[in-house]
Structure prediction request, 123 residues.
Amino acid sequence: VQLQASGGGLVQAGGSLSLSCAAAGRTFSDRRMGWFRQAPGKEREFVAAINWIDSSTYYADFVKGRFTISRDSSKNTVSLQMNGLKPEDTATYYCAAARFGTVVRDSRSYDYWGQGTQVTVSS
Prediction:
């Protein structure tokens, strides 16, 4: 099973990026898919998550109104649309999959992880 994250890059403050996470080896219809990020010297933190089965979404307070998580069943992918990017959004972004019933915002709930994609926002 592999999760492949892509779409990172360098953008100016106020700009947008769209991250994508492709799942290979299995479907995740019984899972919650999440995005986390980690900046240098900081702990990994929750960004957003979506329940594959009903598309319920969850967001960290610092991205509400700016980021949107979605999923495409036909492509077996999860996307994170990031608008209004700020320099403090600079980090490596990881996609992950968790079982239902686990704590949404806790990285320990997630047992599949992608390799990460770098997002850099310049001021």
Summary: The chain has a mean pLDDT of 94. The first strand starts at residue 2 and ends at 6. The two ends are 37 Å apart (CA to CA).
